[in-house]
Amino acid sequence: MLRREWIYGWLLLLPALVFLFAFTHLPAIATIWHSFHSTPRGRRPARFIGLDNYEKLIGDPVFWKVLGNNAWFALGTIPTSIGIALLMALWVNDRLAGRAAVRMAYFAPTVLPLIAVANIWLFFYTPGFGLFDQITAALFGWPQSNLLGDHTTALGAIIVVTIWKEAGFFMIFYLAALQSIPVSLVEAARVEGAGRWTIFRRIIFPLLMPTTLFVSVNAVINSFRLVDHIFLLTGGGPDNASSLLLFYIYEIAFKYWETGYGATLTVVLLALLSALAIGQFFLFDRRIHYK
Amino acid sequence: MFKTIFMKAVATTALTVGTWASAQAVDLQFYFPVAVGGGAADVIQSLTDEYVAANPGVKIDAVYAGSYQDTITKVITSARGGTPPQLSVALSADMFTLIDEDLVIPFDDFIKTDEDKAWLEGFYPAFMENSQTGGKTYGIPFQRSTPVMYWNKEAFREAGLDPDVAPATWEELVEFGKKLTKKDANGNVTQWGVRIPTSGFPYWLFQGLTTQNDVILANSDGNKTNFDDPKVVEAAQYLVDLSKVHGVMEPGIVEWGTTPKAFFERQAAIMWTTTGNLTNVRNNAPFDFGVAMLPANKRRGAPTGGGNFYLFKGSSEEQLAAAVDFVKWISAPEQAAKWTIATGYVAPRPDAWETEAMKAYAADFPAVTVARDQLEFAVAELATYQNQRVTTLLNDALAAAITGQKDAASALKEAQAQAEEILKEYR
């Protein structure tokens, strides 16, 4: 009896397992395998070169630059976009007039294709006649700026676009979570005489923690995954100032066709993401679920 | 009953054999990129349709493959997957990459008659520089261009300059640029004198400057670069100095894509961009404009750019013969003239300019001949083995110099060292 259920169980899991192996685990293993090989070219097949690609990686200044950029990008986007998402969710959860319209406005960036978003921002940032320059020139008489073309501001300009895009998406999760918090808890607290801030700090925020974990895992993955807008806004430039790891992998693997080295970089990305995800789940998961 | 079924079966078989026979007609798959706005894709499609209508034995599946970058990616990916196209237009500068990937066949094998030879020799030599290596012809010029200089005649008049005379030398470019740069009461620039875009692929317009400084960036075998040559450094310094010293160009990286718009908005009085923007500027500039060759320093000069036809391995003899025939047809004067008038690309053969259509067009709009006349001074676009990688090294070095991260000499020296590392295995 137990055995038959066991078979049923595995049979039910089988389709998902097949897909998981075929499209997630096999490519990951193949990538690790390729990272120990040279890049095959038309006239020269791939050959085993051991750790050469990893040595190259350690000596590759662009890789370190890009990794540093990615760290700044993650630091710049994750806390801010989550914070803004929470604020926006609290705001549109209240009974304010026209809140459906406000919710839609906040969510709009998320449903726009990233390429369209990047195109819009490209013209916001355009020196001289772009929106920002027009506003700053009219209000403060500032000279024209070149936010995307300067190595000190290019990454920051991209971070702003990303936050604008991400915050609305995370707001939806917070909004759903807020609406599942029983009203009785807040009412009970009010009866006890708790103020708004105390209610938020002692009741709402703790109850939102599972959502915060979920959102933060997503935000971390996104901070390594979002590259589309870089293609349009800066192309990783100037001099790799706004290039991120995945964008660099694309360039190495599909622009330069150095697939061997591309695989090596991908292994690094895999390792980073696994470490971050495992860290988040094991460190925080147990502390934030209240039963 | 049995009989009717039998007859039906016979009929069906006959029909199947019939369609099978017509399927024996040569099928070609043809990838092409589009790098300028407007209806270039439609023009290629209609030219292809025209050819197929005249040649019932050939079917051509013309596939729009995105930008040049997307096209080369698509070509290499499909070749690795075992289904390469028979014919593709790809960046002329990617010739060495395609050879290195062992994907392309030279056209020479299909040049048999004297007529064929005359056809091959009929292209502008400047375009063939990027099409031939090791005595073989791998690419046939198709959507080719050169950068030219556009200037706003009204702005020239306001600055007290002759509106019909463009700067002809580097010194004049700076001198005119200073007169054309306008500032408002706060001291902020409202109109820059010159705009040379440097985003994305700065090496291309930069190659205009190096050619004018009488130096080439890479040898014709595609396995040696000259990035740290003192003349190259001098050209880079000139580009940097346009903003840093002379203050006639916007500082930082200047966006390629918004350059025509900046020109229309009078943010820049002179711009350098491809001749492929000619129709765009003609339709959208709200003022009188002029088109000139790029200015000279030690000599006149500009790179060529754009795409060539390539033939791919893995095709049958019949397919290759049909593909070559199609390329001959589409590069013939009448078709080339149609293509040039619709897009602004330079017709790749002198005889195309002799057609009635082209003559009438050039008489009505003389600016179209500037890019053609500049071909006399033009050189091959920078092309090496592992081309994308090597040109990126130069692009990064230029970006570092322009943004002041590094000085021009050391940035180019580093780029040269890295390029050397990549290219030494091809010698």
UniProtKB/TrEMBL annotation, chain B:
Pfam families: SBP_bac_8
Signal peptide extent: 1-25
Gene3D superfamilies per record: Periplasmic binding protein-like II
Subcellular location: Periplasm
Any one of the GO CC terms: periplasmic space
Keyword terms of this UniProt record: Coiled coil, Signal, Transport
Source organism superkingdom: Bacteria
Entry-linked InterPro entries: Bact_solute-bd_prot1, SBP
Keyword Signal: yes
Coiled-coil stretches: 368-425
Tagged with keyword Disulfide bond: no
Entry function: Part of the ABC transporter complex UgpBAEC involved in sn-glycerol-3-phosphate (G3P) import. Binds G3P.
Family: Belongs to the bacterial solute-binding protein 1 family.
Quaternary structure annotation from Swiss-Prot or TrEMBL: The complex is composed of two ATP-binding proteins (UgpC), two transmembrane proteins (UgpA and UgpE) and a solute-binding protein (UgpB).
The protein's name in its UniProt record: sn-glycerol-3-phosphate-binding periplasmic protein UgpB
Organism: Polymorphum gilvum (strain LMG 25793 / CGMCC 1.9160 / SL003B-26A1)
